[in-house]
Description:
- The structure holds three protein chains of three kinds.
- Chain A is mainly α.
- Chain A has one domain: ABC transporter involved in vitamin B12 uptake, BtuC (Orthogonal Bundle).
- In chain A, 84% of the residues lie in helices and 0% in strands.
- Chain A starts with a helix and ends with a helix.
- By secondary structure, chain B is an alpha/beta fold.
- Chain B is built from seven helices and eleven strands.
- In chain B, the strands form three sheets. In chain B, strands 5-6-7-3-8-9 form a six-stranded mixed sheet, with helices on both faces. A three-stranded antiparallel sheet of chain B has the order 2-1-4, covered by helices on one side.
- The two termini of chain B are 23 Å apart.
- Chain C is mainly alpha-helical.
- Chain C has a single domain (2-281), classed as Orthogonal Bundle (ABC transporter involved in vitamin B12 uptake, BtuC), CATH 1.10.3470.10.
- Chain C has 13 helices and no strands.
- Chain C is globular.
- Chain C starts with a helix and ends with a helix.
- Classes of the chains: A mainly alpha, B alpha/beta, C mainly alpha.
- Chains in contact: A-B, A-C.
- Chains A and C meet through helix 2, helix 4, helix 5, helix 9 and helix 11 of A and helix 4, helix 6, helix 7, helix 11 and helix 13 of C.
Amino acid sequence: MSYLVEIWLAASLVALAAGAVGYVVVLRRAAFAAHALPMAAFPGAAASSLFGFSLPAGLAGFALGGAALLTLVQRSARRDSATGLLLAGFLALGALCLSLSGHYAGSVYGLLFGQVFALGPEDLPVLGLSGLCLPILLWLGLRPLVLSAMAPDLMRVQGGQPRLAELAFLALLALAAGFAVPVTGALLVFSLMLGPGATASRFCKRLETGLLFAMVIALGLVWVALGLTYMTNWPVGFFTGTGSALIYLLARLKTV
Amino acid sequence: MNAALEVSGLSVTQGGREVLRQIGFELPRGVFCGLIGANGAGKTTLLRAILGLLPSQGAIRVGGRIGYVPQKLQLEPDMPVRARDFVALGLDGHRFGLALPSRSRTQDVDAALHAAEAEGFANQRVGQLSGGQQQRVLIAYALVRSPDLLLLDEPLANLDIKAASEIVALLKRLCATRKVSVLLSAHDINLLPAMDRILYLADGKALCGTVQDVVRTEVLSRLYGYHIDVIRVHGRILVVAGGNGREHDHDPVHVSAIP
Amino acid sequence: MTMTRYMSVPFPDVLAFFQSGPVQVALVLSGAAAIICGTLGLFTVLRGQAFAGHALADVSSSGGAGGLLLGVSPLLGFLLSGAAGVGVLELLQSRRVAARDEAAGIMLSAGLGVTALLLHFCLTGHGANGAAQAVMFGEMFSAPPGTALWACGLAGLCLLTLVVIARPLLLASLDREMALVSGVPVRLLEVVFLLLMALGVTLAAMTVGAILATSLLIAPAAAALRLARGALMAALLAVALGLAACWGGVGLAYASYGWTPGRTWPASFFIVALLLLFYTLAALGRRT
């Protein structure tokens, strides 16, 4: 497989997972959490280079840890403040790890804004697993994930557990975010989620079709961004970030 | 079990304050019961305790399934959920896994929408419906699992008088046709005459009576601590608050005196 | 980099700490940021605008990167892009909190995308290896001395404006409709407050870096709101906590040179760690 095809495949898999998760993020109104969790993966990547364990393990481990912490603060009265602080804490921890590992300046840019061309064939199995499994899991859990955010009391009365759904959602979000960090960077994972998700939720009439539509938009966004990156040699994150905002603005103009 | 709901010795403490104290009452099947009381008397607390959403002491026995219509639900216009899909969530939205389309599922949803008279807007986004329409969709949601007891928390609070009377009439029909018992909390006392029974809360105590017992000038004035006139005209009952200046110069009827 | 230069002889000496020029600049800069963020933060937390504050800080990073690229003061860059962010937020503004978050998130994506591009130019064109680190995680020790003066001026201006609008803003934060009815120009106040917030996060971005700026805005205020009873007490406490974290962080970063030979720990790490510590202690202290 040629190098460029590998990159294209990896980025597509990341887009599938991010698009699907992003749609649920929009439905659950969890934009801030979705922005915070990739930051939790950031020190994971930094620590993996400092202590020498594998990168996917570091990313997934720290992101899941972040999800656990985030569930703890979800019930507090000012949860947006707590989320913001958690986010800053993780970033600061990552900065410390990087500075101790000695290649601070070099790695900061890649980890924050993505280094899609640093991907190798060894990353494909993990990305493939997440890119295919996460959308399926989200599809299976779509109804409880939406209901628990929309009407937790109704769900409780029916015998469901909104807290469990919350935890499941954050875990899936953490995994999608963690694996996307090497491709889009910790800061821009979020752009791949929110733009497609918000657009799909505005245009689709049914829950399930929205999920599919969001994945398609995310895929298209990543393909266009990769193509433009190839042509201009500018960073991928610039195209995904601004492209996502553009899609969202168009969708907002179209509908009220 | 004959009654739809039996409550005895129910106490709920919230934030160190005993909101409900040793409450006991019984609700027969197919009865439309209004729950009234001043702000903060514990109406929502009682409903949530019955639903098991609050820790409580005492015995609550429900003869069958409960359907619940919450006080306020933020349904936003950009949620890709049609009214029909929302009602279907009431059937199995709490379970993980695929919802396979089946005939019985569709039938249940259609029946609930029909019973709540919400078929006309079943295919619109639930967030884009009007207040009265959303209330009907919420009632359909509560009905979809064929409950024996329907609890509604201030369902009429944000509706105009027409929409509110229509919802009350709808609930009354449901009591008769589906043999559902309805317990509805409300603060518009003018809707009370439509109900079969009144359950009222004051000072942490609850008392249950028929409309004839409760909807009377002395009782309502005593209950709200404010003069209220009950006027019977053309076979209808009007409840008018405030007025003639001689508040309670007659001997007030004690709440506990009502059978 | 600069830090390594002036600390090539490690002084554990307190006097040397205060005599070092970069340390003085850092102390003044972070002090101004702490004072202004502590007071602004109270409103940010009360109004539930933590995400908007964070988005503004993230967007301001594009100006910081642009400043580095064009060789103008990063302070100016941060400030201009922050103000532009306020404009976008206003255009996309919505009454519903959820939609507000969505708009902030979208703006943040676009802003960070631009930052990515500008930093990319810095790295490839100018060979400025530390650009990403400086903009995102702050580099107070290499800030030019003139910046400290500017920071103090801006902080003073910001504080003055806040004092003027504090009371109507509080009313509008508690109940928007009531404020409207009583003749408060709510929309104008909201824009002014967002502009002040952009100014606050700019100073914070100079101190701890753009993506950590929110912590300085939120943590002292959130902790103070848990502990203090009155509004004035809360403001004083928030400022005190912010100052303690910032100056403590600068001191620890200075001292850290002796811990791991040849490498200093980033000051922003210590500042954020102290802020989180204060916040957690306040949260625990209140509950028992």
